[in-house]
Design a protein that fits this description.
Strand content: 15-25%
CATH topology of the largest domain: Rossmann fold
Mean pLDDT: 92
CATH architecture of the largest domain: 3-Layer(aba) Sandwich
Family: Belongs to the tRNA(Ile)-lysidine synthase family.
CATH class of the largest domain: Alpha Beta
Oligomer: single chain
Strand order of the largest sheet: 3-2-1-4-6-5
Radius of gyration: 23 Å
Helix content: 40-55%
Subcellular location: Cytoplasm
Organism: Methylopila henanensis
Low-confidence stretches: none
Shape: elongated
Protein name: tRNA(Ile)-lysidine synthase
Distance between the termini: 66 Å
Number of strands: 11
Keywords: ATP-binding, Cytoplasm, Ligase, Nucleotide-binding, tRNA processing
Number of helices: 12
Length: 328
């Protein structure tokens, strides 16, 4: 059995990258300079050298200008790339001060990476999310009251427009990536924000020992995410089948026919979400959707607004249209 803190072996890396990078022509590796992304850069470059074939690899670092040492970290990534013959780009991604810096930095980072991928003709970006990151995401989604879609957390592959977002290390423990760098005597940068208790992810890392003693290990939380992803895929397939019979898209919204009322609750709920999305213009919070669903089930007729859409229902089904403007 492989030691959970040992370096990844070449055969393990070959299996990971063969699977996750299959079918793409050019992957932009997102490398910040931290241990996870530096390990992805080093291991992917070694894999590509062993294979002598596969996608073109290039590297990009988004500079957020949040810390004075960031310039040196970008330069260190550029040197690693030069040593391995990989092109490197520094991407601007300055974040003005204010609340919600984590979310704003993430959105800025992905926007910069996708724009760069489009400019260089890449069809995929890769980020170095690990099993530890996945576990933290599951806990964050639990705390936010997410349903199956949220608890599926991050996927190994997601589509962002026509560019694929790949996470080749999502099932790998961070400790094994650190060990892989230590084995090669390659350094990395430590971001003090990762240990700052002002941020939720840092607080969850600080509570890891307590969580693991209660059985909430990264491995089990990662397994939960994978199982919820299976559930989510099966549910969405069932919703697609039900939509073919009960969901009608209209010019300004959608209609759910009377047969919608006889479906299983989860299928009905998801079809209602699609009808709201067809007419609305805002994010649909699950708890508010569930309250609307309960009203429709309890009241023979009525109307309500949610996420920029108006839903009206009676014995003929549910009709959604854009919500009227609010009065001043």
């Amino acid at each position: 059995m492989t030691d959970a803190t040992s370096a990844l072996t070449p055969s393990e890396c070959d299996a990971l990258f063969d699977l996750r990078f299959a079918g793409v022509g050019h992957v932009v590796l997102a490398v910040s300079g931290g241990a996870d992304s530096v390990a992805m850069l080093v291991l992917a470059a070694e894999w590509r050298e062993r294979r002598k074939e596969g996608p073109e690899l290039s590297v990009a670092t988004v500079a957020h200008a949040l810390r004075p040492e960031a310039d040196g970290e970008v330069a260190a990534v550029a040197r690693l790339c030069a040593e391995r013959g990989l092109p490197h780009a520094r991407l601007a991604g300055a974040i003005p001060p204010g609340a919600g810096v984590e979310a704003r930095a993430r959105d800025t980072r992905y926007a910069a990476l996708l724009a760069h991928a489009s400019e260089v003709g890449a069809d995929a970006i890769a980020t170095a999310h690990t099993r530890d990151d996945q576990a933290e995401t599951v806990l964050m989604r639990l705390g936010a009251g997410s349903g199956p879609a949220g608890l599926a957390a991050m996927r190994p592959r997601a589509e962002r427009g026509w560019i694929a977002h790949l996470r080749p290390l999502l099932e790998s423990p961070k400790a094994r990536l650190v060990a892989s760098l230590q084995e090669r005597r390659i350094g990395w940068a430590e971001d003090a924000m990762n240990a700052d208790p002002a941020y939720l992810r840092a607080r969850l890392r600080g509570a890891r020992d307590v969580l693991e003693r209660e059985g909430l290990t990264a491995a089990r939380l990662g397994a939960l995410a994978a199982r919820m992803a299976r559930v989510e895929d099966a549910l969405e397939a069932a919703v697609d089948a039900a939509a073919a019979e009960h969901f009608v898209r209209e010019e300004d919204g959608a209609r759910l026919g009377p047969g919608w009322a006889g479906l299983a609750d989860e299928i009905r709920l998801r079809l209602l979400a699609r009808a709201i999305a067809a007419a609305g213009d805002g994010p649909i919070r699950l708890d508010r959707l569930e309250r609307l669903f309960a009203r429709i089930a309890a009241e023979p007729r009525g109307a309500a607004t949610l996420a920029g859409a108006k839903a009206a229902w009676d014995s003929r089904g549910v009709r959604t249209t854009p919500a009227p403007p609010r009065r001043g």
